[in-house]
Amino acid sequence: MGLAAKEEKRYCFDERLVYGNRFKQRCRVIYDEYGYYLNPKGIEGYYFVKTQYVEHFFKHFCPEENFVLITHNSDHSINERHLPLLETKNLVAWLAVNVDTHHPKLKAIPIGLCNFANFDTFHEVMQSKADKTTLVYANYTIYTNPIERRRCLQLTGVPLAKQKPFREVCKDVASSYFVISPEGNGIDCHRTWEALYLGAIPIVTKSPHTEAFKGLPILIIDSWKEYKNLELTKELYDELWESFTPEQLDFESFFQIL
User: Fold this and answer.
1) d(CA 63, CA 53)
2) S-S: 99 plus which of 189, 199, 209, 253, CB 3.0-4.6 Å?
């Protein structure tokens, strides 16, 4: 597939983009930093809870009827500590960001883009159809996860790009074949999804969360030690990018995974 054809697989409609507040907008009941309240436009039986409030939710607000739970807008993970909550009989499904365990009811969803991203700028760069000029791009801040990110920097040997305005960063991502995306404050990272929407392939490390997205053009390695064993080429990019359909990045494909 030629470059022009591949570019056509990028998204051009903001309503398809994934970000935390999109999930919140779909839920009838919301429990977050603003309190416990109803969303009249939300779907009956769908509950949105900021992840760090989820144990308090089950203790004090757990509904008696069947319900679907969505936890997001947080860097906290859902892990083995939460397995007893997943056994709640009337919990139909739990859609969560930063999944770090396995359970039949638990479904991983993307962190997506930042809720406060400049979507007009992002959308503009998505439509710009940038030429690919960089094989591997890295642009992340060390302090959000010093141990993991220093290890990533050392083992990959890919230097960090200079800090730039958001528009320029988006252009750099769009003009790259691969983007290194180490864990930050949480398992998932906005950079992973920025890369995908801008037509680049993110490279991430293995976790229950990242494994849930094996059907997407994401390179998953066991650890950053494996990075130098990768043969990153334009041909590999083409192979991975052609292996999925654009609709797989649509918000609805993640919301309707039940």
Assistant:
1) 15
2) 209
pLDDT tens readout for residues 113-166: 999 989 999 999 998 889 999 999 999 999 999 999 999 999 999 999 999 999
For residue 257, what pLDDT band results from cuts at 50, 70 and 90?
Answer: low
| Nearest alpha carbon to residue 108 among 191, 213, 16 | 213
Last residue of a domain, one of 56, 88, 108: 108
CB 128 within 8 A of CB 171: yes
Q: Which H or E run includes 180?
A: strand 176-180
Last residue of a domain, one of 108, 129, 152: 108
Structure tokens at 28: 């009838």
Among 112, 131, 87, CA closest to 209? 112
Alpha-carbon span 198 to 182, nearest angstrom: 18
Same domain, 70 and 144: no
The tokens describing 137, both together, are 């791009």
Are the C-beta atoms of residues 183 and 145 closer than 8 Å to each other?
yes
**Domain tally for the chain?**
2
| Residues 45, 201: Cα–Cα separation, whole Å | 36
Q: pTM, whole model, 2 decimals?
A: 0.92
Question: Looking at this protein, which amino acid is placed at residue 179?
Answer: V
Distance CA 221, CA 214 (A): 11
> Residue 67 sits in which domain range?
20-108
**pLDDT, tens only, 158-207:** 999 999 999 999 999 999 999 999 999 999 999 999 999 999 999 999 99
Cβ atoms of residues 24 and 72 within 8 Å:
yes
